[in-house]
Amino acid sequence: MGRMKFLCDAERCIECNGCVTACKNEHEVPWGVNRRRVVTMNDGVPGERSISVACMHCSDAPCMAVCPTDCFYKTEDGVVLHDKDKCIGCGYCFYACPFGAPQFPNGPAAFGARGKMDKCTFCAGGPEETGSAAEYEKYGSNRLAEGKLPLCAEMCSTKALLAGDANVVADIFRERVLRRGTGAEVWGWDAAYGGGERKREREHKREGQS
Amino acid sequence: MIGKLKSMTLAALAGSALFGLSACSEVPQVTVYEQGEYRGKPDTRPWEGSAFNGDRAAWEKALRERARGQSEYNRIQ
Fold it and tell me: Do A149 and B59 touch (CB under 8 A)?
């Protein structure tokens, strides 16, 4: 098995927040902590795009690099997890993460008062006995150990959010882009730093539209 | 007596000069980064739970099927 990855197809995301709700419910995430959220670019403007964002389980994760207590680890499947018993709530990982994935139950409190960091686990639990009450309480449910994918992706009504082995996810997305003939560029450099909107205006072809 | 005082003054001056000059020395300021190592509790692998009982191949197959099922083009084939 290779690397576990998320991929959000901005051409399909309808900003329903089903992924956010599914995640909250599955792991009983407390108020103020959002392991996953939907971000909309150019909200209200024709051609707006939404993407669902959580921990992207980076291959070279900056949170792991900056953690002063070395509480992060990467599983054989490329899932970035952490030990909450070691976390001191310093918030370094939050500043290092380009996706704003690390969350703190006490919000923007001072050092030490933030509480233990919480983030998306790719529904893979944490360093406690698989399926135990301790694992559920600290990290949420362990769907991966049951042979299931993260619930956010499984719940996605338009299948905009894909999860799983990077090769399988890439194959699905590649086929989708080939069939509809557009939309490969939206979740990349152009979307983040400009250029993508103009390119899309030139290419009006959308799936299901002439 | 005067000679002793002179030598003591000279020694004090030399000492203070050395102390002052030591501030001019070059201290290496390049950070040497060290690779950290996970220091938390060990975790079991996902196929080692009760659902797959250590059968990694079965777990990988189950997950691959599940991932492939996300494509409606695969489901209607």
Answer: no
Show which of residues 50-69 on chain B sit within 8 Å of chain A, judged by CB atoms.
50-52, 58-60, 62-64, 66-68
Q: What is the mean pLDDT of chain A?
A: 89
Whole-angstrom distance, CA of residue A94 vs CA of residue A101: 7
Specify the pTM: 0.82
CA angle B37, B41, B45 (to 5 degrees): 95
In three-state secondary structure terms, A124 is strand
**What does the pLDDT read at residue A190?**
63
pLDDT band for position A201 (50/70/90)?
Answer: low
DSSP string, B14-74: HHHHHHHHHTTS--------------S-----GGGSTTTTT-HHHHHHHHHHHHHTT-HHH
Interface pTM, i.e. ipTM: 0.83
Q: In B, residues 24-43, which contact A (CB 8 Å cutoff)? A: 36-43
Q: Alpha-carbon distance B30 to B24, whole Å?
A: 18
pLDDT in tens, A114-139: 999 999 999 999 999 999 999 999 99
Amino acid in the structure at residue A91: G
A contacts of B72 (beta carbons < 8 Å): 159
β-strands A4-8, A37-41 pairing: unpaired
